Amino acid sequence: MSETRSRTGKTPSTLQVVLALGTVYVLWGSTYLGMRIAVETIPPFLMAGVRYGLAGLILYIWARWRGAPRPEPVHWRSAAVIGALLLMIGNGGVVWAEQKVASGLASLLVATEALWIVLLQWLRRGGVRPGWRTFTGVGFGFTGLAILLGPGAKGALEPAGAVALLLAALSWAIGSLYAQKAPLPETPLLATGMQMLCGGGLLMILGAVTGEAQRFDPSRVSNDSLLAMTYLLVFGSLIGFTAYSWLLRNVSPTLASTYAYVNPVVAVFLGWALAGEPVTATTIAAAAVIVTGVALITSASGPKKAEAPGKSPAEEPSGSTTGRTRSAGRPAAVEVETLADSELEPETCGAR
Q1: CB–CB of 199/87 below 8 Å?
Q2: Which pTM value belongs to this model?
Q3: For 178-216, how does the pLDDT look when each residue is reduced to its tens digit (9 = 90+)?
Q4: CA-CA distance, 334 to 133, in Å (whole number)?
Q5: Would the CA dihedral through 162, 163, 164, 169 be positive or negative?
Q6: How far is 234 from 221, CA to CA, in rounded Å?
Q7: Distance of alpha carbon 157 from alpha carbon 144, whole angstroms
Q8: Are 19 and 165 in contact, with CB atoms under 8 Å apart?
Q9: C-alpha–C-alpha distance, residues 102 and 121, integer Å
Q10: CA pair distance 190, 57, nearest whole angstrom
Q11: Taking CA 241 as the corner, what is the angle to CA 344 and CA 82, rounded to the nearest 5 degrees?
Q12: Do residues 28 and 351 lie in contact, with contact meaning Cβ atoms separated by under 8 Å?
């Protein structure tokens, strides 16, 4: 039962772990289809801006009501940078691309974030060469991309949408690495709420700059799009995040991060079953290869080092400097060898 040993010293029941994992698998896997339906009649940047703005406001008010201290200016600066990288560019790129690309294919391209994380960690100054398993995972990932984008997939993937999704995944990777050392509040809910507020505001500004606000006609919004946006807000951003936060405190990071290679499978299946998206042999082959690559990269991190009894990741600041402001990382899909000892934390908008 070492995989389910709680960080707080308590052992959760198997049923609790299964329900939490199932929640994250299904809810975060379904957000791709939800985004596709939402942007059918709602401009993508405005839709995402409202979604994250409202979710961030709810989390911020809840955290402050429960006693979280007022954030400092440096915390807002970090939240703005993370919100720009993860939400404005990252999620904004995904919702824009889903006007052109099927939700299942979008999820597979977003899964390449694991590859970008590895490459950025290796190429940065002082970077460490990844191990053989991580290298193998990267190889699988790029092979899957070649299958997905190759001649056999012509007509299935619109080039502009594919480029937007790959850039979005790259931005998520950069934002995730920045968040590892960014000064943020010690309270996870407060930090996440701040990042969602900043990211949501930036997305709405982007929507205004690109003319979405002028073209938007509320009378043309369909019930399906409105329900999809509500679903993304409540189930994707709030309930999904809560379930993942619980997992990070009650199971190993390796087990919690399995969502990274289950979500694309769920997204492809839901897109086929509920939206009639075509699933070709090429898509299935690419999905299998990409998911295998992400699984290899994720498992290469190994288990997290044991923490002092009675202290959860939310209570123990990162680093060895006493009194240091908490360094928060996205609930990352991947942790390569060079990040094996880093905390997997929920403060940076892991909710898709």
Answers
A1: yes
A2: 0.81
A3: 988 899 998 888 999 999 999 999 999 999 999 999 999
A4: 13
A5: positive
A6: 19
A7: 14
A8: no
A9: 30
A10: 10
A11: 60
A12: yes
